[in-house]
Amino acid sequence: MPRKLSGAMHRTAQIRRLRLEGTSWDGIAASLGLSRWSIIERGRRIGARSPIRELASPDDRSRDPLPAGHPAAGDVITGGTSLENTPYPLPVFPR
User: Fold this and answer.
1) Is 76 helix (H, G, I), strand (E, B) or coil?
2) What residue ranges do the domains of the chain occupy?
3) Which of 6, 3, 5, 27 is nearest to 15 (CA)?
4) pLDDT tens readout for residues 56-89
């Protein structure tokens, strides 16, 4: 009996491609019209991981520590999370 081909193979390739391009799980789910958790689970099964981020070179180590909420420090902590690019509430620092 021939195997029934669904869009699963196409979706698998699309999930891998989008993830390598750096698309978030939410973005992939929206583009495929599926739930976020089903996309995450499928991505884990097929080994679709986000690309490795380039590490920033260390700054001048002789400078004083940055205060809490400073954009340079906050971006390192929140990068790749749902809080990425959201400003720290107080105090406000110019970018």
Assistant:
1) helix
2) 7-50, 64-95
3) 27
4) 666 667 777 777 777 777 777 777 888 777 777 6
Lookup: tokens for 32: 């495929």
Residue ranges of the alpha helices (H) in 1-95?
8-20, 25-32, 36-46, 71-78
Q: Which of 12, 14, 16, 11 is nearest to 48 (CA)?
A: 16
The two tokens of residue 15 are 């999930």
Q: Residue 80, class by beta-carbon neighbours within 10 Å (0-12 exposed, 13-18 middle, 19+ buried)? A: exposed
20 phi/psi in degrees, rounded to 5? -65, -30
Please tell me the pTM assigned to this model.
Answer: 0.49
Establish how many alpha carbons lie within 13 A of residue 75's alpha carbon, considering only the half-sphere containing its beta carbon.
Answer: 8
